[in-house]
Each structure stands twice: as structure tokens, then as C-alpha cells.
């Protein structure tokens, strides 16, 4: 039987890279994007992939996903990747309630709702959850209080879920990328000059002296999915060129 994987935010960047890797390996994959146009692009690129819309700004978004798993995959799920995310960069002075709430919904509340809805499916396969966190949830950066604290919260959720779900044979780990080449900063509405400036300063701060590529993150996720890591749970794995140890 084909293995099954759900990737939230699989319509671009890191999530799309993970989808491409496991699609090529013959898995059944469901990816989400916020709109029909973003899911259509990934569906066209990867024939046979399943797509659904999922937007953490809205309530009850986990329901169509769990209905899909029950209906199409007979209630079996091997891997859930909580990857959907976006970033807010703002000084504390002037921060909005909307910014705080959107970060906490996207990186903590909604992954919690979806993961809770998938427990029985994952128990059926002794499957696993992988949370895509961030080096910004480990190391403190000015103007990243909303995003950084949300990702730090996701790191703690990873450990608590790992404890709670271990008796069911479900493993839970997090991968924490450092600055990686995707469209995440463009989607945050930053100007090209600002993005260029951030890229330069990030590169200078990374011990391995380069920004990450999507494949750096994908191949680490593949390591965790690989059967060689079946005794690994509750781990937060930085994949960041060393930036989180500086
Ligand atoms: N790139 C980095 O430097 C970096 C570093 C550390 C951690 N991360 C984390 O890696 C994950 C993937 O980011 P990425 O860099 O690949 O960014 P990306 O290319 O912008 O992709 C983000 C994905 O998440 C979806 N998404 C965004 N906001 C969402 C929301 N409110 N509800 C549901 N889906 C939403 C997007 O859907 P649409 O296509 O519809 O917009 C897209 O599929 C995120 O959790 C991010 O925090 C990224």
C-alpha cells in the first residue's frame, strides 16, 4: 500500500519541495494552499497529487482535510507535516493584536487542531508528525516577537505532543530552518531593497556562510521520515548553517 502524507502550505517553498520529493518516491500526497490558484499550480506541476484549500485565518479548516483522509485513504495517514506559515516583522511598539493572533493561529492553534484531528489516523500507521519551525524560534531577533514566540511555542508543542502521543506509537519532531530561499519575505509584503538587505545580513551571520536552499530542508525531513530514525521523537532539529548556535 502506498504511504500517505499531508503537507500544509505545500503550494510553494519548503512545503512544495517536500511534496516534490515524496511524490517522486511514489507517496500519495495531499498539499494545501490558501487559494485555488496556489493549489492549481502545484497540482499542475505534480500529476496525481491531491490539493485542498486551507487558510489558518479561518475556523474549522482541519475538517476538509480529515474528511479527505477518511474518505480517500481509509483513515490511514503516515506523515503529517505542519508547514504552512508566514512571517510578520514589526517592532513591539506598534504591534497589532491582529499580527499576534495571526502568528499564534498559524503556528500553534491551527496545527494543534489539525494534529488532534489526525491522531487516530496516525495511530493506525504508527506514523509521525513533523513541525516546520524556525531558527527564529530558538534565537532572539529584534522585531520578530510575534513570529519568534509563535515558533518557540511550536517547539514546545512538539515536545508535549511527542510525550502525549508516544504511547500510541506516534512520533513528533520539528525541523527548524534558518534563512532559506523561498518567497516568504515577498509574501510578507517587504520591498525588494528591504529583502536584499535582510538577505545580506542573514548571510553574514551564518557560520556556514550561505543561505539555505529548499533542498537542505527537504533532505532533513526525508531523514526523519526514513525508517532509520524510528527511535527519534521530541527532537528539534535546526537546519540553519549554524545560525542558531551563534
Ligand atoms: N524561508 C525561510 O527562510 C524559513 C525559515 C524558517 C522557517 N520557515 C518556515 O517554513 C515554512 C514554509 O515557509 P516557506 O519559506 O516555504 O514560505 P512560502 O514559500 O511562502 O510558503 C508558505 C506556504 O504556507 C502557506 N501559507 C501561508 N500563510 C498561510 C496561512 N495563513 N494559512 C494557510 N497556509 C498558509 C502558503 O500558501 P499560499 O501559497 O496560498 O500563500 C504556502 O503554501 C513556514 O512555516 C515558515 O515559517 C521558513
Automatic annotation (TrEMBL):
SUPFAM superfamilies attached to this UniProt entry: NAD(P)-binding Rossmann-fold domains
List the InterPro entries hit by this protein, alphabetically: NAD(P)-bd_dom_sf, Sc_DH/Rdtase_CS, SDR_fam
Identify this protein by name.
Answer: Ketoreductase
One Pfam family per UniProt:
adh_short_C2
Superkingdom as given in the UniProt entry: Bacteria
Q: What is the lineage of its organism?
A: Bacteria, Pseudomonadati, Bacteroidota, Chitinophagia, Chitinophagales
Question: Member of which family?
Answer: Belongs to the short-chain dehydrogenases/reductases (SDR) family.
Amino acid at each position: 500500500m502506498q504511504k500517505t502524507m499531508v503537507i500544509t502550505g505545500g503550494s510553494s517553498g519548503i512545503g512544495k519541495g517536500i511534496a516534490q520529493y515524496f511524490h517522486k518516491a511514489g507517496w500519495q500526497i495531499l498539499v494545501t494552499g490558501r487559494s485555488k490558484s496556489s493549489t492549481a499550480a502545484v497540482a499542475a506541476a505534480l500529476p496525481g497529487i491531491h490539493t485542498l484549500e486551507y487558510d489558518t485565518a479561518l475556523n474549522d479548516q482541519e475538517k476538509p482535510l480529515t474528511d479527505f483522509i477518511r474518505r480517500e485513504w481509509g483513515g490511514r495517514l503516515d506523515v503529517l507535516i505542519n508547514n504552512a506559515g508566514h512571517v510578520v516583522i514589526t517592532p513591539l511598539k506598534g504591534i497589532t493584536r491582529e499580527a499576534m493572533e495571526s502568528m499564534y493561529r498559524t503556528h500553534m492553534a491551527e496545527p494543534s487542531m489539525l494534529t488532534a484531528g489526525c491522531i487516530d489516523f496516525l495511530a493506525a500507521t504508527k506514523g509521525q508528525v513533523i513541525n516546520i519551525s524556525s531558527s527564529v524560534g530558538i534565537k532572539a531577533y529584534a522585531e520578530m516577537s510575534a513570529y519568534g514566540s509563535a515558533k518557540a511555542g511550536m517547539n514546545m508543542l512538539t515536545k508535549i505532543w511527542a510525550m502525549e502521543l508516544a504511547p500510541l506509537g506516534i512520533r513528533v519532531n520539528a525541523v527548524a530552518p534558518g534563512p532559506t530561499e523561498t518567497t516568504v519575505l515577498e509574501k510578507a509584503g517587504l520591498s525588494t531593497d528591504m529583502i536584499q538587505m535582510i538577505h545580506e545580513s542573514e548571510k553574514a551571520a551564518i557560520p556556514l556562510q550561505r543561505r539555505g536552499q529548499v533542498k537542505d530542508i527537504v533532505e532533513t525531513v526525508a531523514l526523519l521520515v526514513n525508517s532509520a530514525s524510528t527511535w527519534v521523537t521530541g527532537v528539534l532539529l535546526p537546519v540553519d548553517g549554524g545560525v542558531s548556535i551563534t
